[in-house]
C-alpha cells in the first residue's frame, strides 16, 4: 500500500537518481572521457564521486521520508533502475558516440571482438531482446507504481488525535467489513502511527469498548515505531454506539487512552455490528 503523494516527489527522486548516476558515470575513466571528450584527471574523478554518491543517498532519504522505510527503499530501487536504463541508452545513442579518430583506433580491437560475439542470428536476437527488456522495464515499474494502493495512514479517512504526549494516526487497513473467521469470530486489521518521542513508547493496544484494566487493554500493536499493525477482535456484544479505545503505555509506566467513535474510524465495522444484531 503506497502512500498517496504528488508526482513531484517521484520526479525529485528520479532527478536525484539520474544526477547521481550521471556524476558517477563522469567519474569513470572511459565514460568520463567519452562524455567530456577529454581525459578526466584523477582528482576530478574523485570529486565527481563525492558529489554523485550523496545525491543517491539524498534520493533514498526522500523516498524513506515520503513513503516510510519499507516502501521507500523499494521505490528508490525502482527509480534508480529507471534512471540507470535512461543513462545507459543516453550514453549508447547520444551524439557523443561519434568518437575522435584516435579513440576509434584505440578501441578498434575491442569493437571487432565485441561484434564477433553478435554475428550469429541467435546472438543478434538475444541482443535485441535485451534492449527491448531494458526499454520496457521503466514502463512496467511506472504501471506497477500507478496501480499500487494508497497506504492506509495516507488516506483521507485516517483518524488523528492526541494520546498522552503523542499524536496518533490510526486507520483500518481495508475499508470493508470485518473478516469472519471459521470459528465465527470477527476480526479487523488496523494500522497505527505515533508521532512524538517514539523511543518513549513501551507498547500500544487497541480494543472495542473501554478497557477495565491494563490486562484487558486489547490487542497489542506490532511492528516499526512509525508503522504499527494489529488485528483486533470485534466482540459479539459490540454496538455501533461503542468506540475503539487506543491505549499507549510509556516507558515510565504511565497509561494514556484515546476514545475514537466506531463510525468515525470504521463505518464498515459499525454497519457490520448493526447488521449482526
Task: Describe the 3D structure.
This protein is of the alpha+beta class. Helices cover about 50% and strands about 20% of the residues. It has helices spanning about 5-25, 30-35, 40-95, 100-105, 110-115, 120-145, 260-265, 265-275; strands at about 160-165, 165-170, 180, 185-195, 200-210, 220, 220-225, 225-235, 245-250, 255-260. Strands 1, 2, 3, 4, 7 and 8 form a six-stranded antiparallel beta sheet that branches. Helix 1 packs across helix 3 (about 40-95) and helix 3 (about 40-95) crosses helix 6 (about 120-145). Mean pLDDT is about 80; it is low at about 100-105 and about 105-125.
Structural class: alpha+beta
Low-confidence blocks of residues: 101-105, 107-123
Order of helices and strands: HHHHHHEEEEEEEEEEHH
Counting copies of identical and different chains, the oligomeric state is single chain
> What fraction of the residues are assigned to beta strands by DSSP?
15-25%
Q: Please, how many helices?
A: 8
Instruction: Kindly report the average pLDDT value.
Output: 79
Query: CA-to-CA gap between the ends?
Result: 33 Å
Radius of gyration: 27 Å
Tell me the major beta sheet. Answer: 6 strands, antiparallel
Helix content: 40-55%
- Gross morphology is elongated
Number of strands: 10
Amino acid at each position: 500500500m503506497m502512500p498517496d503523494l504528488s508526482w513531484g516527489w517521484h520526479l525529485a527522486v528520479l532527478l536525484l537518481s539520474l544526477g547521481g548516476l550521471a556524476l558517477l558515470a563522469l567519474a569513470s575513466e572511459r565514460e568520463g572521457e567519452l562524455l567530456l571528450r577529454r581525459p578526466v584527471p584523477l582528482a576530478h574523478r574523485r570529486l565527481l564521486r563525492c558529489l554523485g554518491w550523496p545525491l543517491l543517498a539524498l534520493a533514498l532519504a526522500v523516498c524513506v521520508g515520503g513513503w516510510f522505510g519499507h516502501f521507500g527503499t523499494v521505490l528508490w530501487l525502482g527509480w534508480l533502475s529507471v534512471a540507470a536504463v535512461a543513462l545507459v541508452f543516453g550514453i549508447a545513442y547520444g551524439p557523443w558516440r561519434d568518437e575522435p579518430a584516435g579513440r576509434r583506433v584505440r578501441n578498434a580491437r575491442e569493437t571487432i571482438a565485441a561484434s564477433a560475439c553478435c554475428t550469429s542470428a541467435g546472438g543478434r536476437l538475444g541482443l535485441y531482446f535485451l534492449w527491448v527488456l531494458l526499454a520496457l522495464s521503466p514502463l512496467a515499474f511506472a504501471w506497477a507504481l500507478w496501480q499500487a494502493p494508497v497506504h492506509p495512514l495516507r488516506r483521507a479517512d485516517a483518524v488523528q488525535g492526541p494520546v498522552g504526549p503523542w499524536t496518533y494516526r490510526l486507520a483500518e487497513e481495508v475499508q470493508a467489513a470485518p473478516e469472519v473467521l471459521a470459528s465465527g469470530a470477527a476480526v479487523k486489521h488496523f494500522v497505527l502511527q505515533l508521532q512524538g518521542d517514539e523511543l518513549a513508547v513501551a507498547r500500544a493496544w487497541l480494543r472495542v469498548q473501554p478497557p477495565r484494566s491494563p490486562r484487558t487493554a486489547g490487542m497489542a500493536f506490532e511492528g516499526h515505531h512509525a508503522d504499527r499493525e494489529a488485528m483486533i477482535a470485534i466482540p459479539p456484544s459490540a454496538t455501533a454506539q461503542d468506540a475503539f479505545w487506543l491505549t499507549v503505555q510509556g516507558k515510565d509506566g504511565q497509561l494514556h487512552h484515546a476514545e475514537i467513535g466506531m463510525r468515525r474510524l470504521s463505518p464498515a465495522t459499525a454497519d457490520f455490528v448493526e447488521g449482526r444484531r
